[in-house]
Design goal:
- The protein is an alpha/beta fold.
- The protein has ten helices and seven strands.
- The protein has one domain: 3-Layer(aba) Sandwich (Rossmann fold), CATH 3.40.50.
- It has a seven-stranded mixed β-sheet, sandwiched between helices.
- α3 crosses α4.
- The protein is globular, with a radius of gyration of 18 Å.
């Protein structure tokens, strides 16, 4: 079975519209927005797992690099995973303290560029919307592959710079250039953006992600995260994909070593 077969059935236009409509609640009701995103992500990862593995998720360990305050922990635990969140930013870890105290999962403060796990020690390593926030995104990817066991899954999903959401809270002004967009935001709001170009937000392209993933020999699938299945062809369209694929998912499976 192809790795994306199960998830492709879920990737409908209705799902895309529903997720986009939830985005408007990100600031006013973060629990609603991130709860919906977490549930959708857990569905995606579980579908990818079931398409490539003989066993259900129950009892298997999932490490979430950049897991944040705990919304993802609840969704993944409900789906049967043993969830471990890794978060380098203490403010993110405490942003929803009540969620973490009431919710399941384990949490570590560590960098995704140097994960505190042994080689081949976890079943799934996930990174959702983190790669664009680190200066060396493919070092993050390499670390994820290192800790994932042979036959497991490393799933790296990131926001594409030239896509409509590449500028994050700076909106579409990132098309003026990252430094100019950050300066414009600072003048308008009297403070720099949280996702500040060059320090906590970097340009990451579809082409670079596909090139890196292909070079590992472990790539099994790549698709636009929030698009309906009939629009996945955009991933294979050079140039156009940089603007049309707002978020790219790279699914990698370290090969099982032959004895």
């Amino acid at each position: 079975m192809i790795a994306t077969d199960l998830f492709a059935q879920r990737a409908t236009l209705g799902r895309s519209v529903r997720l986009l409509s939830e985005f408007r609640h990100e600031r006013s009701d973060p629990a609603r927005f991130y709860g919906a995103l977490a549930a959708d992500t857990a569905d995606m990862v579980t579908d990818l797992w079931r398409a490539t593995q003989p066993d259900p998720p129950a009892g298997h360990t999932l490490v979430d690099v950049g897991g944040g305050p705990g919304y993802f922990a609840t969704a993944f635990t409900n789906a049967g995973w043993n969830y471990v969140g890794v978060e380098p930013d203490p403010s993110e870890m405490h942003a929803a303290e009540q969620v973490r105290q009431a919710g399941p999962g384990s949490f570590l403060r560590a960098s995704g560029l140097a994960l505190p796990f042994a080689d081949g020690s976890v079943d799934v390593c996930l990174s959702s919307n983190v790669a664009e926030h680190v200066p060396r995104p493919w070092q993050l990817g390499a670390e994820m592959l290192r800790v994932t066991r042979p036959g497991g899954l490393a799933i790296l999903s990131y926001t594409v710079w030239l896509g409509p959401f590449g500028g994050h809270e700076m909106g579409l002004t990132h098309y003026l250039g990252g430094a100019r967009a950050a300066a414009r935001y600072t003048r308008k709001h009297g403070r720099p953006p949280k996702n500040n170009y060059g320090s906590s937000l970097f340009e990451v392209s579809v082409a670079d992600g596909l090139s890196w993933a292909s070079s590992t020999g472990a790539l099994v699938a790549a698709f636009p995260r929030y698009h309906p299945r009939w629009a996945w062809w955009l991933t294979g369209a050079p140039g156009l994909r940089e603007f049309a694929v707002s978020n790219l998912v790279l699914v990698l499976r370290p090969p099982i070593r032959q004895k």
